[in-house]
Amino acid sequence: MADDALLFVLPDSHPRLGAALTAVGELECAETPAVLGWLHAHGISGASERVRIVLAGAEVLVPEDAERLPVPLSAEEAVRVEHECAPQSVTDMECELLGFRDTTQDWQALVHRALTAGIPTPRIAQLTGLDPQDIVQAVDN
Asked: Which of 97, 125, 128, 132 has its CA 20 to 30 A from that of 115?
């Protein structure tokens, strides 16, 4: 095994690049003293969404100010990392958008049912991410 991948801690201000370490499943290197010590030194858990991994050769994706650690991968692990790092297909993204539309299509009825059940408007806003004004308008319509 050579250094086949690069672990890095994604700074807070950056978009999600690479794959989350937890998304690729268990990696043999993740339990090594080197990786565990590196995570500890940076005060972060391997379960954090900020701990990312990319295959060797994709270092260009890693922000310059990110803490980095080269790690070895088995062939099977490298395939999993590659799969998780691959961009989502347009078809998959469109299906996700359609699913969102389907779940939000009748949001007014859901708000009415929640209000009838006694859930206050601020709590509905907190749980749904809806603007409280939209909730009030849904009730008035």
From this structure: 97
Give the total number of structural domains in the chain. Answer: 2
Same-domain check for residues 39 and 95: no
- Alpha-carbon distances, residue 126 vs 40, 74, 80, 99, 103 (angstroms): 34, 44, 36, 21, 17
Q: Whole domain around residue 115: which residue ranges?
A: 91-140
What is the percentage of the chain residues whose pLDDT exceeds 70? Answer: 97
Average pLDDT along the chain? 88
Alpha-carbon span 58 to 64, nearest angstrom: 13
Per-residue pLDDT reduced to its tens digit, 55-106: 998 888 898 889 999 999 999 999 999 989 888 787 887 888 788 777 777 8
Q: Are residues 111 and 74 in the same domain?
A: no
